[in-house]
Amino acid sequence: TQETAAAAAPTVAQPSFLTVTEVKVNVSMPEAAKKASETGADGVGLLRTEHMMLTTGVHPKKFIREGKEDELIKVLVENILKVADAFYPKTVWYRTLDAPTDEFQSLEGGEDEPYEHNPMLGWRGIRRELDEPEILKAEFRAIKKLHEQGYTNIGIMLPLVQHPDELRKAKEIAESVGLKPQKDIEFGMMVETPAAALTIEDFIAEGIDFVSFGTNDLTQYTLAIDRNNENVAGLYSERHPAVLKLISRVIKECNKAGVKTSICGQAGSMPDIVEKLVELGITSVSANTDAVPTVREVVARVEKKLLLKAARKLVQE
Ligand code: PEP
Ligand code: MG
C-alpha cells in the first residue's frame, strides 16, 4: 500500500541550496542507492538495469527460454525496490535493459550471443528489447508489481530510441501487461541518437513525459567515435558544438511542448556543461553520486545569475 512505501521512506539530508532545476543522481548498482540518496538528490535520473542482470550471472533470455519469467521478475523487483525505497517519494526513472551483445556474452546462456563487428551500432537498447519482448514484459511486470505495492515513484525510460515506432511499440507492450504509460506511470526516452534529437517533435507527438540526454552515446553517434576505442578517444568530446546544438534544439522543442528534459550521461557531472544546460532551460540534471554537491552548487549559481540578469532587465525597462 501507499502507507507501506511511505513508512519505509528514509530521512535524507536536505540539499544546501534551493534550486528550481532539479539535481538528481545516477544509480547503476542498487546496493549504492542509500549512499546516493544521502546526497539529498531530487530523485534518480537514471537507474541502470545492466548491473542487476550481470550479477545474476545468467543471461535474462535464459530465464525466459526455461520458462522462469517469475524468477527474472523477482530479481528485478528486489533490485528496483532497493532504489525506489531509498528515494521514496522522489521519482526514480528506471531505464529498460540496454544489453550490448559483447557485454552479455560471458553470462550463462549468453554463449549464443551473435558476434557483431560494431556492437555499439548493433543489437542493444530498445531495438533489441522489441525483438525479445518477453524480457521487456518481465521488466514492466516487475514495475507493475512495485506500483501495486505503493511504489508509484517509478517511471520508465527507454534507451537508444531512434524512431517513434519504437516508442509506440514499447508503450503497447507496457499496456499489454496492464501499465498505462503517461496515465499511471511516467514514460520517457533517452535522447542518445542524432535521429531522436533531430526529430524530437515526432516523439513528442507520439507522447512522452520526459527525455533524458544520454550524452555518452549521443556524443559517440554524433561524432562517429566509438566510445570504447582508445585510438579515437582523444577526439571524443561532449563539448563538440554539434552535440551541444542537438541538445539545445531538443530542450527548446520540449520546453515548448511541456515535456521535461534531463541529462544522465557523464556530461551531467561536468560543471561547464551543466552551466550551459541550465541556461538553456533544462528541467533537471542527473549526476554521479560524488558530483551531486558540486552540480547543485553550479545549478544554484547559474540560476541566481539568470534571475539577477532578468531582474536588472526589468528595472531598466
Ligand atoms: C549515455 O549513453 O549517456 C548513458 C547514460 O547510457 P549508458 O552510458 O548506459 O550507455
Ligand atoms: Mg547510453
Automatic annotation (TrEMBL):
It comes from Methanobacterium congolense. Belongs to the PEP-utilizing enzyme family. The keyword Amino-acid biosynthesis does not apply. The keyword Nucleotide-binding applies. One of its GO terms (molecular function) is pyruvate, water dikinase activity. One of its GO terms (biological process) is gluconeogenesis. Residues 20-303 form the PEP-utilising enzyme C-terminal domain. This is Phosphoenolpyruvate synthase. Keywords: ATP-binding, Kinase, Magnesium, Metal-binding, Nucleotide-binding, Pyruvate, Transferase. It comes from the Archaea. The chain holds residues 449 to 765 of 765 of the full protein. Catalyzes the phosphorylation of pyruvate to phosphoenolpyruvate.
